[in-house]
Design a protein that fits this description.
The chain is globular, with a radius of gyration of 22 Å. The chain has helices spanning 29-32, 41-46, 51-57, 94-98, 112-117, 124-148, 153-179, 188-203, 215-229, 238-261, 269-282, 295-300, and strands at residues 8-11, 14-17. Helices cover 49% and strands 3% of the residues. Its main location: endoplasmic reticulum.
Length: 315
């Protein structure tokens, strides 16, 4: 680490180099810059930092993590080994561990083939799914015209848009009732399930390789959702709805990646979404389930309230 990679702050008289955290800080770089080489104990209390924030801070402590009273839960696992084989041994401590974030890369499987199937660069999603969306939508347009004899672009766009809207509900439902189902007791299967589908993202929220949905499980999920929709929509509209739904999914995945690594400007839609998603990650795990939209959070009463800031955030 060279001199330009030093950004030291002091907390409770201990020194922390948070250089690697600057661009990931939920409060932006402009709130951190004035505190270089200064004490941050009082400001962190003033801005009501969460328990997760204090835990994450220990990642950057010079000399390594030294949480008082042996409360460092990272001692319970070996980060040099695949994590999936270890999480079930955490038992009742699993949920506290998985919601205590760290700034590391995580290996899920020991088998390199399985491991590579769980790692997805963001650009792979549009490369794979945009051609599928075009193909499915073209089939949908042809079937709709053949069956209904209606070639109105407005009507076709309506059913496509219906699929986009349906995706936002699926996104919310999956995130709230599937991804955030809390394992109870020491059920190994529930811990495996939770950690694999979403828990690992809350554990390592800055691992850019694990921010979008891998294509293989996404294809399986697409097939399952398609089978569920077939009894609901007619033969003339199902593929239009599916094309819209897949478009919504790709948009969601790209937004999710951007919310973690992008720098939206103040007062833009994505600026508010980034603040919203950061609050979900680091303060209120059981609220704020919408990612590409806050609409269903408002409908189901799980919306987060963001406090008003005197100065806008700059990431």
């Amino acid at each position: 680490m060279n001199q330009n990679e030093e950004f030291d702050v002091k907390f409770n008289a201990n020194c922390y180099n948070i250089y690697e955290f600057l661009n990931n800080h939920p409060g932006g770089t402009n709130y951190l810059r004035p505190y270089q080489e200064k004490e941050v104990t009082k400001p962190m209390k003033q801005y009501q930092h969460s328990k997760a924030a204090y835990y994450l801070l220990e990642e950057y402590r010079k000399g390594g993590r030294k949480i008082e009273e042996n409360s460092d839960m990272e001692k319970l696992v070996d980060w040099d080994k695949p994590m999936l084989g270890q999480v079930t041994s955490l038992g009742n401590k699993y949920y506290e561990w998985v919601t205590s974030p760290v700034d590391r890369r995580l290996r899920l499987f020991g088998n390199p083939i399985l491991e590579n199937l769980t790692i997805t660069p963001w650009y792979v999603v549009p490369i794979i799914w945009i051609p599928v969306i075009i193909y499915v939508t073209l089939i949908g347009v042809r079937k709709y015209i053949q069956i209904t004899k209606d070639s109105s672009p407005t009507t076709i766009a309506f059913y496509f848009g219906e699929g986009v809207l349906l995706w936002t509900l699926i996104e919310y439902s999956l995130h709230r009732w599937v991804f955030h189902i809390e394992p109870t007791g020491k059920s190994k299967m529930m811990i495996y399930f939770h950690f694999t589908i979403h828990g690992l993202h809350h554990k390592v929220p800055f691992d850019s390789r694990r921010l979008v949905f891998p294509p293989f499980p996404a294809a399986i999920l697409t097939f399952v959702i398609y089978q569920m929709l077939c009894p609901i929509f007619s033969e003339s509209t199902i593929f239009l709805v599916l094309g819209g739904g897949l478009s919504g999914y790709v948009t969601y995945d790209m937004i999710h990646f951007y919310l973690h690594h992008g720098a939206p400007t103040e007062d833009s839609y994505l600026y508010h979404l980034k603040r919203y998603h950061n609050q979900h990650h680091f303060a209120q795990h059981e609220s704020g389930f919408g990612i590409s939209s806050m609409f269903w959070d408002k409908v189901f009463g799980t919306a987060l309230k963001l406090r008003k800031l005197n100065i806008g955030i700059k990431w």
